[in-house]
Amino acid sequence: MAEMILPQKSGKRKVHSLKVDLTPMVDLGFLLITFFMLTTTMAQPKAMDVIMPDDQPTKHPTPFVEEATITLIPSANHSLYYYNGLLKSPADMHIAGMKNARDIILRKKSQVAALPPTFSSDAHQLHVLIKPDKTCKYEDLVSLLDEMNINSVKYYAIVDISAEDVSAMAQ
Questions:
Q1: pTM for the whole structure
Q2: Do residues 73 and 131 make contact, with C-beta atoms less than 8 angstroms apart?
Q3: d(CA 68, CA 85)
Q4: Which sequence spans correspond to the domains of the chain?
Q5: CA triplet 35, 36, 37: central angle to 5 degrees?
Q6: Under CATH, to which class is 66-170 assigned?
Q7: How would you classify the pairing of strands 79-84 and 69-74?
Q8: Is residue 148 within a helix (H) or strand (E), and if so which, with residue range?
Q9: DSSP output for 38-55
Q10: DSSP 8-state assignment for residue 22
């Protein structure tokens, strides 16, 4: 509490200093800090929902239109191998950098949109298979998933890389 000493009425005036007790102010400060710490929301982790396929093999595999499918294989040194449809020969495999992933997806998306109207409605949607190899960086896989969201690709899946893909990458 503030304490003030007033001079006596006896003749000479004495000037006394004003004393301020700051204990209640410090208590109030700590109460406010405690209140704000308990009522604030800490940063929530940001996670993307990824629907993974069931581990059990199915009797009816998911059908896909070869003309509307592209396979992306992120690899070491931020490289990206890709091919359209099914891999028929190692010459069908192309290589690019991870920085070109958006251009590859947009190019394929425009090719899919240009398919004749005789194809089904599913054929006019881009289907992407992401097959990370063993030397792939986690950041490359995450950036590919981000590209799927940015480019509004509805149909994509993360699948295991096949032996044919590995042998085509080696050539």
A1: 0.67
A2: yes
A3: 7
A4: 66-170
A5: 95
A6: alpha beta
A7: antiparallel
A8: helix 138-150
A9: HHSPPPPPP-----PPPS
A10: -
Element of type H or E holding 113: helix 101-113
C-alpha distance across the termini of the chain, in Å: 84
Q: Which tokens is 68 given?
A: 């509307």
How far apart CA 87 and CA 106 sit, in angstroms, is: 20
Query: Three-class SS of residue 95?
Result: strand
pLDDT at 10 over 70: no
Type and span of the H or E element at 5: none
Q: What would you report as the CA-atom Rg of the chain, rounded to the nearest whole angstrom?
A: 33
The encoded tokens of residue 162 equal 């096949």
Element (DSSP H or E) covering residue 67: none
Measure the CA–CA gap between 95 and 83, rounded to whole angstroms: 9
The residues near 61 (Cβ < 8 Å, ≥ 6 apart) are none
What SS3 class is residue 63? coil
The residue assigned the tokens 């960086």 is: 137
Average pLDDT score over residue span 111-135: 86
Give the tokens for residue 163. 């032996």
> What residue type is assigned to position 133 of the chain?
D
Structure-token match 């059908």, residue found: 63
Q: For residue range 39-90, what is the model confidence (pLDDT) as tens digits?
A: 888 777 777 676 666 666 666 666 667 888 999 999 999 999 999 988 888 8
From 139, 135, 130, select the one nearest 159 (Cα to Cα).
130
